[in-house]
Amino acid sequence: MPVVLRDVRHSVRGRDWFSRAQKLWLTEMGASAEDVASAAARSVALLSASDHETLLIERDDEPVGFIVLRRSFSQEHSPSYLLLEFYVIPATRTLGVGAAAARLLFDRFDGFWEIRSLSSDARAIAFWRRVVSRYAPGAVEERRERGEVVQRFLSKGAR
Question: Is 145 helix (H, G, I), strand (E, B) or coil?
Fold first, then answer.
């Protein structure tokens, strides 16, 4: 079960899959019908943003999820990354695909990471606590901010 990350921008198939998967993700997140309908325009905007990375998660050469992150460069933590979206299709959620993709992501982008989960999303909070605590044991700062659980840590290459 090899899991790999691929830049969405380098493949028409990848861009098409990402656009469709965005609709699934938005629906699952409880987005309005209007937001789901505008997913194609949203996908184009994400793919053209110079400070964003949009990656496909592939398992056995098939897309099974996507990741969107934003890069920033601050004086305090440079580089730093904010995880904006992380989606794995339901059929592969219990197979370790998400955890493997997260580890690949953190290794690929060395620096300071911030992951935000809605306080009401117990499944996401549990997933990120498990993955991040294994990735950066004892080095994770977690707190609640404005209805979100926020985790911050340095990826391995930055420690």
Answer: strand
Query: Which token pair is 131?
Result: 């993955």
Domain count, the chain: 1
Q: Which domain holds residue 94?
A: 3-158
pTM here is 0.86
User: Is the peptide bond preceding residue 79 cis, with omega within 30 degrees of 0?
Assistant: yes
- Residues 158/134, Cβ–Cβ less than 8 Å: no
- One digit per residue, the tens of pLDDT, for the chain of length 159 reads 699 999 998 888 888 888 888 888 877 777 777 776 776 676 677 777 778 899 999 999 999 999 999 988 665 666 799 999 999 999 999 899 999 999 999 999 999 999 999 999 999 999 999 999 999 998 999 999 999 999 999 998 654
User: Looking at the chain, how many residues does it have?
Assistant: 159
| Residues whose CB falls within 8 Å of the CB of residue 67, separated by 6 or more in sequence, listed in order | 5, 53, 54, 55, 57, 83, 85, 86, 87, 101, 105
Residue 18 belongs to domain with CATH number: 3.40.630.30
